[in-house]
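FW: tagging you since you asked about this chain on Friday. Here's the raw sequence from the shared folder, copied in full. Didn't touch anything.
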Amino acid sequence: MSRRVRRLRSVRSHADAGQTLPLYIWLTAILLFAALAFFAFAQAASARNGAQSAADAAALAGAQAIRDELAEGLGTAIGTGEGDEWLDWLDGDMFTAEGAREAADALAAENDSAVDDAGSTEVDGYPGYAVGVTTNYTVGDSIIPGTESQHAKAEATAVIKPRCDAEVPTDPGDVVEFTCDGQEDPIEIDPEDFDPDDLPDPSVLFSVHLAK
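HL: got it, structure written out here
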């Protein structure tokens, strides 16, 4: 092989290497940008999930506070023996939601978030409690401008559903029977000899779950 041929091949080899290097740099930059973009979206998704978890917990806590109020009001209404007002409590129609916001605030704080707004509502004819929260933390630094100061937000609503039916006796002094979901035997309440502790746990009287 002549020197000229060897020299030409050497020149071509250096030329190919010179053309390939920028391509490698370009591809590496694209891959790096894609990885950083994926990380930024993962950060945002994590913040959104955290906000939703906080909203769910806060809504459930508020609804559970309402459930406890309903159970307490039911016991008081039965104890006083004044008409059929206790039926309204059993149906979940009478409550002030006092204590619900405090409970929602506490659960949101446990999830490093704060409640922006909250209040009782109605879902398909049932009482509920709705909240909106904002995370105390931000999405974090990323290649997307502004994420370092952006907080995630979420909303959730919890529903309180009565789990018991009651046969209204003709005589207000007669024994009242509660038939509750999941209970094999009816619960008997004697208005003439009643103690609020005779009522089952609030979770037996009312279910609480997140609205779909």
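FW: The helical segments are 3-80, 85-90, 100-110, 202-205.
HL: agreed, and Residues 3-80 form the longest helix (78 residues).
FW: great, closing this out.
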